[in-house]
Amino acid sequence: MSMTEASTDRLVVALQKMVFYDQRFAKHLSGLYPDVSVSRAPYSFISTLVERIPHDQRFNAVSVALQKIINSYDHCPSPKEVRLALAEGAIQACCKITFKQQMERARSFLAFPPQTIKEAQSWENQILFSAIKSLSRERFMSVDEPEWVAAVADVIFGNRPLVTYQPESDSRPAATSRPFVELLRKRDQ
C-alpha cells in the first residue's frame, strides 16, 4: 500500500466514524465522481487532493488535517472543509507555519523576493508566488485570512501548475554587433 493510499484510508475512516458522514460528505462527492460508487467517491476525492502534496510530507499533512478535523468538528465536515483542512495540513507539514504566518511571509516575499532560482523553486515559494499571482498583487495587499486560505487551497489543489518566481539575473547576454547586410543574407537563405 502506497503512502497516498494509507493516508487516504486513515482520513476516510476517521470521517466515516463522524456523525452525518453520508449526508455532509459522501453524497456530495457522488456528484463529482458519477462513475465511482458512493462508497469509493470519498477515497477518489481525498487521494486526488493528497497527490498534490509533496510526496515526503503527505503522511504528516494528513495527520495535521486529521487532528484539525477531529478537534474542530462535532459532525462530519463538508468536502470544502476537508479540502481546507488538508491545505492547512500541507502548509504546516511542509513549511512548519500557520496560514497567518504564511500570509506574513507572503508580504515579506513581495518586499524581498528570492534572489536565486533554487530559493524560488522551493515548494513554499512556489505556493506563495502562485497564490499572490492568482489574487493579484493589489488584491493581496487587502486580503483577509479566510480569502488567503481559500486562495492557497486553490493553488495547492487546483489544476493549474505552480508558478515559480523568476529572479532577475545579473548576467545578461552580451550584445553583439553585426552588419545589417549579413543579417539579410541569413534571412534569405
| Unreliably modeled segments | none
Number of domains: 2
Give, in order, the helices and strands.
HHHHHHHHHHH
Mean pLDDT figure: 88
Strand composition percent: under 5%
Question: Helices, strands, pairings?
Answer:
Elements: H1 3-16, H2 21-32, H3 41-50, H4 58-72, H5 79-95, H6 99-111, H7 117-120, H8 123-135, H9 137-140, H10 145-157, H11 180-188
Helix pairs in contact: 1-3, 1-4, 4-5, 5-10, 6-8, 8-10
What does this molecule look like?
The protein is mostly helical. The chain has 2 domains: 1-96; 97-167, no CATH class. The protein has 11 helices and no strands. α8 crosses α10 (145-157). The relative contact order is 0.10.
Describe the structure using short key phrases.
189 residues; 0% strand; 11 helices; mainly alpha
Offer a quick outline of the entry.
The mean pLDDT is about 90. Helix 1 (about 5-15) crosses helix 3 and helix 4 crosses helix 5 (about 80-95). This protein is mainly alpha-helical and about 190 residues long.
